[in-house]
Design brief:
Rhomboid-like fold; mainly alpha; 187 residues; 0% strand
């Protein structure tokens, strides 16, 4: 029996994120804030600020933060790579990171880092894995109701969690799911 690199986008993302955190802790203090977080403002003349709109998703504040996100990503990512292809999932992840980063810069006065937007994109997108055209899965409706209730309640907590990124990721995941099934015929 051999070990197979079965979900290249998911596994590479996990390795990148863990490596960034390890490098910060052991060799390069400040790496996460310099490369892997998007600030509340952007300098239009800075190429690094444009890069951070994507890389913030790979930055995490600590091992607990990283493990919380990647317990979902490692579970859902392989399913989504099989359904939408590795390239398709990579594009969805990049778009989700870009959208959450841009909206954070435009509307919030806080920085942003972490993969929680991508986690919530995957949570809602995975509910579309067996959808047929003209149908809305009950699992999708229940996930949206539970998820939105939780995020609205948590919105009023004074913590460092970005419910805005969660909601944005969930919306992008829902859009990807609906767009992908829009052109398919039912079984």
């Amino acid at each position: 029996m051999r070990i197979r690199y079965n979900a290249p986008v998911t596994l590479s993302f996990a390795i990148l994120s863990a490596s960034a955190l390890a490098l910060q802790q052991w060799f390069f203090p400040g790496l996460i804030s310099y490369v892997f977080s998007v600030g509340p403002r952007m300098n239009p003349a800075s190429p690094m600020d444009y890069l951070r709109l994507f890389t913030h998703a790979a930055g995490h504040s600590g091992w607990t933060h990283l493990m919380g996100n990647f317990s979902f990503i490692l579970l859902l990512g392989p399913i989504l790579e099989e359904k939408y292809s590795s390239g398709g999932l990579l594009i969805m992840m990049l778009i989700t990171a870009l959208v959450t980063g841009l909206l954070n810069v435009l509307f919030l006065s806080t920085g942003l880092l972490g993969a929680s937007g991508i986690v919530f994109m995957m949570i809602l997108l995975v509910s579309f894995t067996n959808i047929r055209q003209g149908e809305v899965p009950l699992t999708f409706i229940l996930i949206v109701v539970l998820y939105l209730t939780q995020e609205v309640v948590n919105f009023f907590n004074d913590d460092t969690v970005s419910q805005f990124a969660h909601i944005t990721g969930g919306v992008t995941g829902s859009l990807f799911g609906f767009l992908h099934t829009g052109g398919r015929r039912g079984r």
